[in-house]
Design a protein that fits this description.
Layout: H1 10-30, H2 33-40, H3 44-52, H4 59-64, H5 70-86, H6 98-111, H7 116-119, H8 121-135, H9 147-163, E1 171-173, E2 180-182
Antiparallel strand pairs: 1-2
Length: 184
């Protein structure tokens, strides 16, 4: 706990505080244990592949038994690389973890578009592409998904809503209709 006292400014203090809240409270209170265990141990590159893999097995089973899914994994990697090229992204950009994704989820939940200062526009673009891959077309239908697939998709649906809520900076409010309009 003394590490928080070593922060150099208020921004670093609040960032440290948020990370500790995620670690000590939000993980335990907000997420099913299977999802928490999965998201804390998955890499961004694995999420990219899992978004494209064709398998009826749950994500954690696939990750623990990759040797059984070599063909499916390779096909999903190839599709992921094509999508990255199409979106002008590189696989090396996806160097974050599931824990980073969770922390950024709470940044957007708390600060809306103001979180972009900490998350970064490029990382937000990566999250958008990843979400699109998990939720594209018929994939948004949760009825045939495994529990972990459902939880991941629901997480990304909520995450997208937090990323694209009403403006939080430079906006006006129409007092008659209550509509919020960005002034950017």
């Amino acid at each position: 706990m003394l590490a928080i006292l070593k922060t150099k400014n208020y921004h670093d203090f609040t960032d440290f505080h948020l990370k500790e809240l995620v670690r000590l409270r939000f993980l335990k209170d907000d997420w099913p244990s299977a999802f928490k265990d999965f998201i804390l141990n998955v890499s961004a590159k694995d999420l990219l592949v899992l978004a494209n893999i064709k398998s009826a097995k749950d994500f954690d089973f696939i990750l623990k038994n990759k040797e059984q899914f070599q063909k499916e994994w390779k096909e999903a990697e190839t599709k992921s690389e094509q999508i990255l090229i199409k979106n002008k992204l590189k696989k090396t950009d996806f160097n974050w973890t599931g824990n980073d994704l969770l922390i950024d989820f709470y940044r957007f939940r708390s600060a809306d578009e103001l979180a972009l200062a900490d998350v970064g526009v490029e990382r937000a673009k990566q999250y958008k592409v990843l979400s699109d891959l998990f939720l594209e077309g018929g994939k948004a239908d949760l009825s045939s998904d495994t529990p972990l697939q459902k939880q991941m998709k629901l997480f990304l649906i909520i995450f997208n809503k937090f990323m694209h809520e009403v403006p939080a900076d430079h906006f006006s409010v129409d007092l008659k209709s209550g509509a919020v309009k960005s002034l950017k």
